[in-house]
Specification:
mainly beta; nine-stranded antiparallel β-sheet; rod-shaped
Length: 322
């Protein structure tokens, strides 16, 4: 009768078949599949179905087939059909198989894209771990990750690995970005790698300066901020001893200066009469030196004999580091 749709399949399954190579004078042959007994197979010799059982044409157990009489190579032919091993002959229509028909974790790499993350190819071990599977569905490796990391592909045949998400070589610590290499930084104000816009150094800290010979201090407290090669140093020194010599007064810097830098000093007490003020210079070295500035005259060295116990220096010094 007439019908609508695809032509229905006439056979849905067939039984697996094994053809044997006859060996003269041999009665024992090896089956390709294990059986319980001879009733699990149908043996055909020279196109004649043989009777199974002890004292009959053949017996079988496990993978051993035993004939009651040997056959002759070139004259006789023999094959068997495994009655318990049906093989499907009709494929399911496209799009008709759902997840309930799939075996867990049994999708091979040939059926999926080579992506870093494929849920059908992995399962969670413990929190943060990913198990990788080979093409046969066997677990081959465990990759351990942490918060903020993503899986990356290690290439064909290799298990995926974890890497920090978003930016190569950076991680997060308490919400702050942290480079793997301390020499790395951030380009500011540009959208390409421009050396002049790279901020790769920032530091804050406290500092105790070293006075030149012949001076002692009861208070020596400084703080600095370094942004790239720009240094801001501020603090206070209170003199508590001096040898009264003509030694030029200087103080060490936390970072060497890159050139001639000047700063105006707020000299609270002990300033000589007629001095307009003090300035300090640093010129390509690790210290700054103080000078007296007088009206209508060049500056002169500020020396130990001009300082008394209790004199205080307050200042903020800004310079470029080397």
């Amino acid at each position: 009768m007439a019908y609508l749709g695809n032509v229905p399949a006439r056979s849905f399954i067939s039984f697996e078949r094994q053809v044997f190579t006859i060996v003269n004078s041999q009665t024992a042959y090896t089956l390709s599949h294990s059986v319980t007994n001879e009733n699990d197979i149908r043996l055909v010799v020279n196109n004649v179905v043989q009777e199974p059982g002890s004292g009959k044409a053949y017996t079988a157990s496990g993978t051993t087939l035993t004939l009651s009489a040997a056959l002759t190579n070139g004259t006789d032919e023999m094959y068997c059909v495994f009655l318990g091993r049906a093989v499907g002959t009709v494929n399911a229509p496209a799009g008709s198989v759902g997840t309930s028909q799939l075996i867990d974790l049994n999708v091979t790499s040939g059926k999926i894209a080579d992506d870093a993350i494929t849920l059908a190819k992995m399962a969670s071990g413990t929190d943060g771990n990913i198990i990788s599977y080979d093409a046969s569905g066997n677990p081959v490796a465990v990759a351990t990750g942490s918060a903020g990391q993503v899986l990356t592909s290690a290439g064909a045949g290799a298990p995926p690995t974890f890497a920090t998400g978003g930016i190569d070589g950076w991680s997060s610590n308490s919400g702050n970005l942290l480079p793997a290499d301390a020499s790395k930084g951030i380009y500011l104000g540009v959208n390409s790698a421009t050396a002049a816009n790279l901020l790769d150094d920032y530091e804050e800290g406290s500092y105790t300066t070293t006075l030149t010979s012949g001076l002692g201090a009861s208070v020596n407290s400084w703080n600095y901020t370094k942004i790239g090669n720009f240094v801001i140093l501020s603090g206070k020194v209170t003199i508590n001893s001096t040898d009264g010599s003509g030694t030029h007064i200087g103080m060490s810097l936390p970072f060497n200066s890159s050139g001639r830098n000047a700063v105006t000093v707020n000299f609270v007490s002990g300033q000589n009469v007629g001095d307009i003020g003090l300035v300090a210079y640093s010129n390509n070295n690790s210290s700054m030196y103080f000078y007296n500035v007088k009206d209508n005259a060049n500056e002169t060295n500020h020396t130990n004999d001009e300082v008394s116990n209790g004199d205080e220096y307050y200042m903020t010094f800004t310079y470029r580091s080397a």
